[in-house]
Specification:
Layout lengths: L4 E7 L3 H12 L3 E8 L6 H15 L5 E3 L13 H4 L21 H11 L5 E4 L4 H9 L3 H4 L2 E5 L15 H5 L1 H10 L3 E4 L1 H6 L2 E2 H10 L2 H21 L2 E2 L2 H10 L4 E7 L1 E3 L10 E3 L11 E7 L1 H11 L6
Parallel strand pairs: 1-2, 1-4, 2-3, 4-5, 5-6, 6-12
Antiparallel strand pairs: 7-8, 9-12, 10-11
Helix pairs in contact: 1-2, 1-11, 1-12, 1-13, 4-5, 5-8, 10-11, 12-13
The chain binds alpha-D-ribofuranose (RIB) and calcium ion.
The site of alpha-D-ribofuranose has 17 residues, from helix 1, helix 7 and helix 12.
Amino acid sequence: MRETIPLLIDTDPGVDDALALLMAFDDPAHRVVALTIAAGNVGLVHTVANALKLCEVVGTDVPVHAGCPVPLVYPSGDAAFVHGNDGFGDIGYQPAQRAAEHEHAALAIIRHAREQRGKLCLVALGPLTNLALAVRLEPALPSLVARLVVMGGAVTGQGNTTVAAEFNIGFDPEAARVVFEAFPAFEIVDWEAVLRHGFLHAAFEAWLATGDARARFYDAISRKTRAWAGDRRGDHWHSADALAMAVALQPDSSLHSELRHVGVETEGRLTRGATVVDWAGRGGQAANARIHLAVDQPAFEARIRSALGVPVA
Ligand code: RIB
Ligand code: CA
């Protein structure tokens, strides 16, 4: 049996985070060592409760660490209009019995990076506030991890929260700037790639109908979000964090990626939170990001079905 890869997921659950977490816990090649929780989609109280509930549904006692309740510098609006006021579709679930750990998320990120001695795969599915704090506390953090995969950004400026900004980066641009300037070689799965890798609502509903208890829970918490998306984005549904997790779990499912320098605008009147990509190499700065542009769609969808317990045909 090959050694499993240690995985630490920083996340703001959130409906699409939940699908990504189901995928991570479903993959035998990885072992989730901790979940660190950010504020973003909804407030930290809810994102922590949602993470603990998801762990209960999966049946894991993986430690959950609460992080920062607010962005580093300026306040930001949440995405409750997408995910529900509680971030999990307002279904009124019975809270998990377990509580979060006392250790702060930023300290947990540093500790696990050190303990895993260069083997840790970090996946960031929310605003980068916790990761930025961890980098400030331990400047050597980038050298202590094997990979950093970030769901975030809009690499040609087609944002989803403002004209130019994607939500995770736009919620805390200062944090994203700290992380992007500290990590010399991270990976990005951006919003525009997410829009290229949707799946039919009808297909997803069929997977939910044939899956196991995970599918039934996910059907309930995602119903509001799927209805919201169906009204606005047509017959395909998009799960941003699930796509990023698919690339994190199976790097060879990335069919096309480009190495470029990516910066974060923190000042722009129109562009605050934008991920500015040096596509033409004019800036002279070394590339710091592998931008994943195309992902193996069948492999992606197979991982989702597996995470929902859908029987293999
Ligand atoms: O822009 C999509 C991202 O913002 C996803 O991670 C979603 O969960 C929200 O955090
Ligand atoms: Ca998220």
